[in-house]
Amino acid sequence: MLLKDIKKYLPKEFYEILNKDINKLRPSQEKAIKKGLFKGKNLLVCTPTASGKTLIAEMAMLKQLLEKGGKAIYVVPLKALASEKYKDFKKKYGGLIKVALSIGDLDSSDTGLYKHDLILTTSEKMDSLIRHKSRWIEDIKVIVVDEIHLLNDPGRGPTLEILLTILKQMLNAQIIGLSATIGNPQELADWMDAELVIDLWRPVKLRKGIYYGKKIEYEDEEK
User: What structural domains and CATH numbers belong to the chain?
Assistant: First the structure.
C-alpha cells in the first residue's frame, strides 16, 4: 500500500509532512488501517522493533487532533523514552499541534497541560494526573501505550493496568497498544476490546549464529 493510497484519510498538512520521507507503507501499517485505524477502533500492534509501530500511533493521533480536536496522550514506561518521543514529535509536528512533556513531580497536577494537544507521559505520572482530577483528561480522544507488554511487569504492570482500566471507564477514546513482544497477544487484545495486528516483517533480517574463533557462523549459510 502506497502512502498516496490513504491520502484522502489524512489531514492535508499531516500528509505533506509524511510525504517528504515516506512513499510506501510497511506491512503492519497497512494491516492496522485495514483493521480500523482510521475508524477509531482500538488496536493492539505486535510487530518487531523498527517495523513502523510509532507511525501507526501518529496517524491515529494526528488525524483525531487535526480533524476533530480533543487531546491525545502517549504513555511510555520510562522518563528517558518520554523525553525522546517528545523531541521527535515536537520536531515533526510542532508546527501543527502543541506538544507537551509531563514526567515530573507526581504531586503536581501540571495545570498548564490543558493548553496542549499531545501529551507525552509515564504511566505513574498519568495516574497522578487522574488522582489530581485534571479537568483536561475528559478531552482525551486517543490513548497510545508504548511497550504495553509491561502490563506483566511486577513493578510497573499494576500501575499500568489500573491506569488503562480507569481510562477505559472514564473515556470514549481510541486505545492503541504497541509492543515488540507479547506472550499472549489475543488475550490482551480481548481485554482491550481491540483488534489484533501481528506482523513479522522487520527492516533488517534477523539471523541466528554462533560466535567461535573470532568468526560468526550463521545457521542459514551454506556449508
Answer: 26-218 (3.40.50.300)
In the prediction, which pLDDT does 204 show? 67
Grid cell in block for residue 203: 527492516
Whether residue 71 has pLDDT greater than 70: yes
Supply the pLDDT for residue 203. Answer: 63
Report, as an integer, the average pLDDT of 213-220.
78
- Whether the CB-CB separation of 60 and 142 falls below 8 Å is answered with yes
| H/E element, 122 | strand 118-122
Q: Exposed (0-12), middle (13-18) or buried (19+): which is 32, by Cβ within 10 Å?
A: buried
Query: In the predicted model, what is the mean pLDDT of the chain?
Result: 91
Q: Which stretches within 68-196 are classed as H helix?
A: 79-93, 123-131, 157-170, 185-192
